[in-house]
Design goal:
single chain; alpha/beta; Clx_II_MBL; six-stranded mixed beta sheet; metal-binding; Metallo-beta-lactamase, Chain A; 31% helix
Length: 259
């Protein structure tokens, strides 16, 4: 499979996922349909699907125009607020993009209808997860590189369940493609908590000359993402909370105030 990150708006990512065998393609979180169609045309692939992580306009604001330009697209999501949705994803109910296996993971917290898409290519054993605004960013996503998103329609207990009973259960070599480019800000926050974390220092050094820092991996995030380290004594001491859910809530509050 081939994954093409596309920079949109100020710091968002859309992605194009292509099955190498059938040349079927999907766009994840369409914001700029003209840019998406231009990139797809250059690949020679056929766009057949749209995977939407959640209903916020900066993740699906291009759906109406895209469907108007490409009638018949399958638009997947788990929230009636998603424009043009015509396939409702059920948690862990697989479907395919060509030969690629797609598993929707319901991850309600940032929004109640948030979905992460876990994809696997049986021919190469490549694995990736598109996390939208779930975990690894600064402002309002679910999982971002070195961070997590704000709990708009959920709470810390929801986020803990998703992080430790859904996302972190994925194979360690799963590539993580998040919805925003917030890595440097996230790493600054993480360094304020664990300034001697060697994996964190190495990631900080690596990203200095990078305009794009995606993808990460599940294994990497476990080493330096503080939100995935709330069971570690070092993070619990910083937050003053022995309960990991309470530590997670405190971390989010600290991150909200971090500048």
């Amino acid at each position: 499979m081939k994954i093409i990150p596309i920079h949109v708006l100020e710091n968002n990512y859309s992605y194009i996922l292509i099955d190498d065998k059938t040349k079927e393609a999907a766009v994840i979180d369409c914001v700029d349909p003209i840019k998406i169609l231009n990139v797809v045309s250059q690949t020679g692939a056929k766009l057949t699907s749209v995977f939407v992580t959640h209903h916020h306009w900066n993740h699906c604001g291009g759906n109406i125009e895209l469907v108007a330009k490409k009638p018949g697209l399958a638009v997947y999501g788990a929230d009636a607020r998603v424009p043009e949705i015509n396939f409702v994803c059920k948690d862990n109910e697989e479907f395919k993009l060509g030969s690629i296996i797609v598993t929707p993971l319901h991850t309600p917290c940032h929004t109640k209808g948030h979905v992460c898409y876990y994809v696997t290519d049986p021919s190469t054993n490549e694995k990736a997860v598109f996390t939208g605004d779930f975990i690894f960013t600064y402002d309002n996503s679910t999982l971002f590189v070195a961070g997590v998103g704000k709990f708009y329609e959920g709470d810390a207990r929801d986020m803990y369940r998703i992080l430790f009973h859904v996302i972190s259960k994925l194979p360690d070599d799963t590539w993580v493609y998040c919805g925003h480019e917030y890595t440097k800000t996230n790493l600054k926050f993480a360094l304020s908590l664990e300034p001697h974390n060697e994996a964190l220092l190495a990631k900080w050094s690596w990203c200095q000359d990078k305009q794009s820092t995606v993808p990460s991996t599940i294994a990497q995030e476990k080493l330096y993402n503080p939100f995935l380290r709330v069971n570690e004594q070092s993070i619990q001491m910083i937050t003053g909370k022995n309960d990991p859910v309470e530590a997670l809530a405190t971390l989010r509050e600290l991150k909200n105030a971090f500048r």
